[in-house]
Amino acid sequence: MCSNSWSKKRNGGDMNSSAVLPRSARGIEIRGVSKSYGEASVLKSIDLNIAAGELVCFLGPSGCGKTTLLRTIAGFNPADSGDILINGRDVSSLPPNERQCGLVFQAYALFPHMTVRDNVGYGLRVRGWEKKKIAGRVDEMLQLVKLTALADRYPRQMSGGQQQRVAIARALAIQPDALLLDEPLSNLDAKLREEIRFELRTLIKSIGITTIFVTHDQEEAMVVGDRIVVMNQGVIDQVGTAQEIYRRPSTAFVAEFVGQNNLLPVTASPSTTPGRARVEVAGECFDVLCSAPLSAAQPMRLALRPEHITVTESPAPPGTPAIRCTVTLAAFLGATARYEVETAQGAMLKVSTPARELLLPVGQHVNLLLDLSRAVLVPIN
């Protein structure tokens, strides 16, 4: 499957322009939404604005609240408090069928006894559309997702990727104000999942519909989303682009959860340079980026990605922050080599470097050169 097989650009492509849905005027607004089950607080006063036409990924570990928030927006799990507005309309007290949301679930929920055409048109029949209009709309949707030739097949006769496209076509057929996807790629094998994530983003952005995409896969969120909402224990830890989340994590949880990271315990002090704090590393003081302004010295974590560390057997150049370590694990990964090393204090660090001809042997004493221009200080909790 090539990356542009679902849709073509409107200037010169073959996608039917009438299939492109109108961009929602005001997106989605979430104001102080909370949800509990008994004494367990699952969502804790969530505030979030999603712009019209924006594709936002909810990312987090199992149990963080991301799927509950999606289902609360859809109306399946009504909020205990707070407001939800979709395209400027308060839907907080409305049932799911009146919220005008297109839904795609993990299992796709296709009707096995219906053809592709009947599955796509199901929501239109429920809404009382005329047969002629249903047929025209279904044709548009099948053309949009490149399944016209398979219109008379049943779900059991289709691949997982094709079934996923049927589910998306059915969700879009009703012309929703928002599209909500709950881990829609989780049932696909790894290779197909990697291919489809690009196609899915291309399709959604070509339509211009406000979309929420729930996933626990970090790479998937980075590929698909305009922005990522990182959730942890019922709250939003950080909202930002993939670059912002990866390069400038605001909490220790985000630093550890998104990609791999080394979190070094340090004492940070206020700096005269805005946005930075002063820390002592390997016996020398440096100003590094800080996720929050400091008024006094306090314990923090210095987050430094494995690829921002150079491992060498040579002495460290003067003025370069370096740590003496011992190699405890070495792995060849093709273009890169992955090491785990142990400091004299017993701390374990991860290092990722371009692979050389021979791996450094386990037990080898090395120096780690730290690129503190890429580091960021995050709070301990």
Automatic annotation (TrEMBL):
Coiled coil as a keyword?
no
Q: Which Gene3D superfamilies match?
A: 2.40.50.100, P-loop containing nucleotide triphosphate hydrolases (3.40.50.300)
UniProt keywords, alphabetically: ATP-binding, Cell membrane, Membrane, Nucleotide-binding, Transport
InterPro entries in the record: AAA+_ATPase (IPR003593), ABC_SmlMolc_Importer (IPR050093), ABC_transporter-like_ATP-bd (IPR003439), ABC_transporter-like_CS (IPR017871), Mo/tungstate-bd_C_term_dom (IPR008995), P-loop_NTPase (IPR027417), Transp-assoc_OB_typ2 (IPR013611)
Q: Where are the transmembrane segments?
A: none
Q: Name one Pfam family in it.
A: TOBE_2
The molecular function terms of the Gene Ontology recorded here are:
ATP binding
Q: Which residues form the ABC transporter domain?
A: 28-258
Q: Which domain of life is it from?
A: Bacteria
Name by which UniProt lists this protein: ABC transporter ATP-binding protein
